[in-house]
Amino acid sequence: MLYSGSITLRTPARLELESQWRALGEFPEFSAPSSPRSSSPPPLLPSPAKPRNSRLAVASLVCGVFGFLLAPALVALLLGIFALVQIRRSNGSLAGKGVAWAGIIVAVGSAFSGILLVWALSQMRFDQRGPRQTAQSECSLNLSKLGSAVRLYANDHADQFPAAARWCDEVRDYVPSMSVFVCPGHANAGSSFTFNESLSGLNAERVSPDCVMLFEAHAGWNSHGTSELANSGKGRRGNILVALAGGQVFLVAPEGLKALRWTP
Question: Domain spans of the chain?
């Protein structure tokens, strides 16, 4: 109370056995009061250092942005995983866990977007070339079916190929439909393919698999001939579809016809 100011050294007081009042400061106990003990605040401790961001995490995010190139996506994924492991083992000295996860997510998303972009571009390219390639593929498929029909005919006729002059008539029962004889766009041609007359009525076992059996010439129904007739025909973009006795079907340039085998 003395230090609070409600009782001062001039406040009258007396001892219990005395009758005379005296100022409180006259008593020895209060003649030199001790000054209040000063309370100083505790010393401030140095604040802990702020954790720095992991460089691997930052690098993962940067690479992830370019993940549509696919290779950076893989790098970003690995850097992000290494960054998470590094941050976990740093005991709080490294930060950037969110950045590492962002790098991984962005990398996966960018890579997926890149794959979709490549697929979309390939589809656009296919659509631009579609009609011509589809017609050529269908023509090649028809020729392959005709080659199979000729071989089936031979199996049913003592291994003999059909007569060249009527080969279409003789194999028509071995094809799924009459459309097999023509290429798309040549419906009025009768037959878009010609039989190699050198194989007319021959035993199939004596014919080399590398020998030309059928070729594209658009010369009409039951047409037959050799490389000269093939050169006069109009193949796809200048090239000519050829089917060998062994079953192979391929395109060949007109100047390459002479290099093929035309005799058994």
Answer: 1-31, 54-124, 133-259
